């Protein structure tokens, strides 16, 4: 073996030893998890329904349905709305995640629903398990990414807002007990598809994104506050940090379509 080859071999061995030493100090993490499809476009078999005045699992009036590749919210089988607020929950809870979906408001708002529900829907996250909700509980203890459409009055109406049934958050560095806080989004009118993203890091930072623009950030969700009624007291421990929970799509009296619902699990990865 020549002197040059001997030197090269020794240098290579030294590099390997340094790399191994560094890997012990800074363990390599797993690659990010793949995106998973939450709604398959064919059925809602992977979801739970909970509608006010009904037991968990009763999809009253076929409110939530899968048709033509869309997750639809409809009221054509209702005789009256009767505050039958509903939510469709994915089958498993999440803590850290990036959720993407598209939505559009369609059709006619039910005129016997409360006036604030016109062109109004949302996605709940960190929600309590729907199986822990009594029949007469109206809203799940959760945080909501509120979705709103522009009204005919021509005034601005933001979407991707934050609402907090039975919960609190920290906004701009301090506890904020308002039920809803507006985002900085544009106003979206008509039946156009809107791209929405929700990035949740446990009980740390939460980010709302609309059509590629970051429109809201807040932190430290916890149980507390009002705007949720007839709950099981065991489920509402005020002050408890909300670190995880279920994701649910909302029904409030306004027909809406959802599609392309995908999620990337961002839970802290195990180190090798």
Automatic annotation (TrEMBL):
Residues 1-21 form the signal peptide. InterPro entries: AL/BT2_dom (IPR010496). Keywords: Signal. The keyword Signal applies. It holds the Pfam family 3keto-disac_hyd. Residues 34-263 form the 3-keto-alpha-glucoside-1,2-lyase/3-keto-2-hydroxy-glucal hydratase domain. PROSITE patterns: PROKAR_LIPOPROTEIN. This is DUF1080 domain-containing protein. It comes from Terrimonas ginsenosidimutans.
